[in-house]
Amino acid sequence: MAAVASNSLRGGIDLGGTKIEAIVVDGDNTVMASSRRPTPSSGGPAAVAAELVRAITGACQAAGVETSALRGVGVGSPGVVDETTGAVSTARNLPDWEGSFELGATLNRELGTPVLVGNDVQVATDAEFDLGAGRPYSSLLGVMWGTGVGGGLILDGKPWLGRGGAVEIGHMVVRIDGRRCPCGRRGCMEAYAGRAAMQARAQQRSDKGEKTDLFKLMKERGRTKLTSAVWARALERGDKLAIELLDEAVEALGAGIASAQNLLDVEAIVIGGGLGVRLGEPFVRRIRQAMQPHLFNDAHPPDVLVAALGDLGGALGAALLVSRRVEAARAPVGSSAAPAGNGSSAQKAASSGEAASDGEAPAAGDIPSAR
After folding, report:
1. Could you state, in order of their start, the residue ranges of all structural domains in the chain?
2. Strand, coil or helix: what is 120?
3. What is the C-alpha separation between 151 and 157, in angstroms, rounded?
């Protein structure tokens, strides 16, 4: 396939605990093509990097462009990200990823174009701020509820990154000496609300003889993990264990998010991630209600909203990294220097590669242009 010269096409990859979403977008942030693949369950960082290459290559093939013709590729990754070097460390929701791995440099060699790496939840929050539910606000907390529980933060129109490990909201303690978290500590919100921790808890109780359809549904769908679609289906069936564990998750989310709000007092909170998007407004409403008793400024609660960009939010945010850090020399979120387009950006649901872990194709719809 001959390379297609382009001054505007960018790639975006959302690396999650169960799936990898890769897209190619144009200068107006219109999704030209996408590709989904399951996240490897073994093999460490090298196996994950190889799968990222396959995903973005698949999206490029669907778009009719070589990876080397892209202006750049952004990657949203779990863990602590060094945005200067593209190294990712302590990404514990990924297989055997305990140390630091030069993800950006590795992908750059394979793809032949600049690769920018950011925290997965922060870039998804950036996308919601520029293109989605966060557009009316100048301060925003993003909470991505999926394999883990991650956070992203916009203050006065700019992302707050700290020293590379900011807004790890899933590791706010909601119960002193509580349940063991996948991070190894105790009482974290993620120990009660993260999908990986919920699966471990469900497995323990199933092994003790408690009845549940969760693992039957997992096998029926050909999955190796309890994906968001499996949890949603179990709820539809009235599965008692699924209902109980999700009730626990909502309680933990309410306490943890309210505690973050008591510190930050942002205008709005956007709930996304695999479970957040899949379970949608009914569960966001429940989280909003669970927050209320813990809010100090309970007379003026923040707006709590469902992420508007759905499953593509993380990948769109990753693609925006290229706009800000390659094309616009790291212009802040919301800056007029960010060339984010000025028209309606209808998503095209063209996709290639393996099915997503949740078995859902990206929904077509209009994405507003960046502010």
Report:
1. 10-120+312-367, 133-306
2. helix
3. 16
> Looking at domain 10-120+312-367, which of 3.30.420.40, 3.30.70.260, 1.10.10.60, 3.40.30.10 is its CATH number?
3.30.420.40
Tell me the pLDDT tens digit for each residue of 118-155: 999 999 999 999 999 999 999 999 999 998 999 999 99
- The pLDDT tens digits of the residues spanning 43-60 come to 999 999 999 999 999 999
- What is the CB-side half-sphere exposure of residue 68 using CA atoms within 13 A? 6
Q: What is the mean pLDDT of residues 198-212?
A: 96
Beta carbons within 10 angstroms of residue 325's beta carbon? 18
Residues pairing with 9 in the sheet: none
332/321 Cα distance (integer angstroms): 10
Q: For residue 299, with 0-12 CB atoms within 10 Å meaning exposed, 13-18 middle and 19 or more buried, which class applies?
A: exposed
Residue type, 152: G
Residue 319 tokens read as 């693609």
- Kindly report the number of other CB atoms within 10 A of residue 46's CB atom: 12
Rounded CA gap, 93 and 312, in Å? 20
Domains 10-120+312-367 and 133-306 share a fold: yes
Mutual orientation of helices 273-291 and 228-236 as an angle, nearest 10°? 60
Is the full-model pTM beyond 0.85? no
Distance (Å, whole) CA 48 – CA 187: 29
Tokens 């989310």 locate to: 253
CATH architecture group of domain 133-306? 2-Layer Sandwich (3.30)
* Long-range Cβ pairs for the range 188-191 (8 Å, 24+): 189/149, 189/252, 189/253, 189/255, 189/256, 190/148, 190/149, 191/252
